[in-house]
Design goal:
heterodimer, A: alpha/beta, Amidase signature (AS) enzymes, eleven-stranded mixed β-sheet, two-stranded antiparallel ribbon, 16 helices, about 40% helix, about 15% strand, B: mainly alpha, two-stranded antiparallel sheet, 2 strands, about 30% helix
């Protein structure tokens, strides 16, 4: 067996039927790790084989009664674990061992999941290609010459190459949705505050959210049903009760009665910001929209005029909060000294220091906070008439490794479709939408706050029709 | 009417920002920072064209207000002195050694 051919759902079904063991899953993961992790540069730490097999053995003798019994999971290396080092992809934390575990990690373990390793990422989650990792870039599982997408780069490639069945990521401006779309996966950036951030190294605290990458919508909903909820250790977790995501999935048989908003602003702004969308990707995006129409959804044009200002807003707020959050790395209590910061972290710390400094604060930070209000308001207005908003994830498929290395600003521009969701604290789900050549691409459904249930239900109907997840990387 | 705002940092600006951020800076890297930081700042400066007078700034999107916890010790969250010091580079008798900031008289 190869775990690449399994989903969480199918693995649990077989384990519960007695035809598969957790041990088989772990051995298959380890085989894929051994085969690919160095060439694709996927994982920064792997748990010891004897520990993993001991955990699997315990689960194999206990009846698979937990929601994720025996399911191998890879964590982005920004989630604190006591068993493995936590680097955030940075040399500053090269040898850092967290003294406590993130709430999400604790919840996953309690649900029966087995943590198999920690994934490469852009250092401190700064980036959308994975190339800002101080440990080198991760390749896309679908073509080794191309980037995995970032910042949760290794988390995406690990699922696609069969090193686990699901992974965790963080999304501050697209860091789950972009790598998920570049690796033919389902990636959820949940509503801000839906999943606890306790024990997860902070990037930009008013934007960070924690989510998952999986092969299917069902698997994603299952992961969220384990990790979502109020955490007394994270005061920003929302009080809203957690819905039954798994039941919600099968609540829709067609999309009749569902209204999907499409904003011409996305296309015009995308064109202006990035010399236009890749034409093949544009065609696939239109085809995906056609699938939603064929399934019965009504398409409605909406105005999101401040989309054009979202990038500027994001690239003031994000580095400002980054400079503040990275101020704690003094090399005294833990970690190496500040000369170990890589180039992108330095750029963001310096930009943020500038925009927050005396005399510039009002012009940059405060203005950005005001424009953020305008972005939030226009989404609120849109959601008065539509159930979800349809958008691309990225204006192009995976770039070649090294393509943007000397032009950080050009790369920032490719975040145009993902950052508005973080500014407004909404839920965004990226879904596979086909291939441009060898490279997978995705589309995005954006829902209002706390609408994950609805997003999963709509996406499930689309997934049943398209089944892109059945395509595996040719390795 | 959109203006083209251009921000050009000087060598002194870059040095000052780096020193505020406590980032050691290599003299040879300064020209690259001048060009990259200036282009990013010029880009974000376009925000001043957005009509935002009188708009209330958004600092958080949760709508939560004053989230308190009980004023009690949570022993589940307590770390031992050994755990706290485990990642520090230099320790002495259970304390962390820090660089001297006060001059000796």
């Amino acid at each position: 067996m190869n775990i690449r051919d399994y989903t969480i759902q199918s693995a649990l079904k077989e384990m519960r039927a007695g035809t598969l063991r957790a041990k088989d899953l772990i051995l298959s993961c380890l085989e894929n790790i051994e085969r690919y992790t160095e060439t694709y540069n996927v994982l920064l730490s792997v748990a010891a084989k004897e520990d993993l097999l001991a955990e699997a053995k315990k689960i194999d003798s206990s009846g698979y009664d937990k929601p994720l019994s025996g399911i191998p999971i890879v964590l982005k290396d920004i989630f604190s674990t006591t068993s493995l080092r936590t680097t955030a992809g940075s040399k500053v934390l090269e040898n850092y061992h967290a003294p406590y575990e993130a709430t999400v990690v604790k919840k996953l373990r309690e649900a029966g999941a087995i943590i198999i390793g920690k994934a490469n990422q852009d250092a401190w989650a700064h980036g959308s290609t994975g190339e800002n990792s101080d440990f080198g870039p991760t390749s896309s599982a679908y073509d080794i010459k191309y980037v995995a997408g970032g910042s949760s780069s290794g988390s995406a490639t690990a699922v696609a190459l069969g090193m686990c069945l699901a992974s965790t990521g963080t999304d501050t401006g697209g860091s789950i949705r972009v790598p998920a779309s570049f690796n033919n996966l389902v990636g959820l950036k949940p509503t801000y505050g839906r999943v606890s951030r306790y024990g997860i190294i902070a990037m930009a605290s008013s934007l960070d959210s924690v989510g998952h990458m999986t092969k299917t919508v069902y698997d994603n909903a299952l992961m969220l049903s384990v990790t979502a909820g109020i955490d007394p250790y994270d005061a920003t977790t929302g009080q809203k009760s957690v819905s039954d995501y798994l039941s919600a999935i099968s609540s829709l048989q067609s999309l009749k009665g569902i209204t999907i908003g499409v904003s011409p602003d996305y296309l015009t702004v995308g064109k202006k910001a990035t010399d236009g969308m890749n034409p093949e990707l544009e065609k696939l995006t239109e085809e995906a929209l056609g699938v939603f129409t064929a399934l019965g959804a009504t398409i409605k044009e909406i105005d999101l005029p401040h989309t054009k200002d979202a990038l500027e807003t994001y690239y003031v707020l994000c580095p400002s909060e980054v400079s503040s959050n990275l101020g704690r790395y003094d090399g005294i209590r833990y970690g190496n000294t500040r000369d170990a910061f890589g180039l992108e972290a330095r750029r963001r710390i310096m930009i943020g220091t500038y925009t927050l400094s005396a005399g510039y604060y009002d012009a940059y930070y405060k203005t950005a906070q005001k424009v953020r209000t305008l972005v939030c308001q226009e989404f609120e207005k849109a959601f008065e008439t539509v159930d979800v908003v349809f958008a691309p994830v990225s204006p192009s498929p995976s770039p070649l490794i090294g393509e943007f290395v000397n032009d950080p600003l050009a790369l920032y521009l490719s975040d145009i479709y993902t950052v508005p969701v973080n500014l407004a604290g909404l839920a965004g789900l990226s879904l596979p939408a086909g291939f441009v050549g060898t490279l997978p691409v995705g589309i995005q459904l954006i829902g209002k706050q706390w609408s994950e249930e609805r997003l999963y239900a709509i996406s499930n109907v689309y997934e049943k029709k398209t089944e892109w997840y059945k395509r595996r990387p040719k390795v | 009417m959109a203006r083209n705002i251009s921000v050009t940092l000087t060598k002194e600006d870059v040095k000052k920002i780096a020193s505020l951020a406590k980032l050691p800076l290599d003299e040879k890297d300064i020209p690259v920072y001048i060009s990259q930081l200036s282009s990013i700042l010029s880009f974000v400066s376009k925000l001043s064209d957005v009509e935002s007078a009188g708009v209330v700034p958004t600092s958080q999107v949760t709508g939560l207000l004053n989230v308190y916890r009980d004023d009690v010790i949570d022993t589940k969250r307590m770390l031992s002195q050994e755990e706290v010091l485990a990642n520090a580079h230099e320790t002495h008798d259970g304390f962390i050694i820090v660089p001297q900031i006060l001059a000796k008289e």
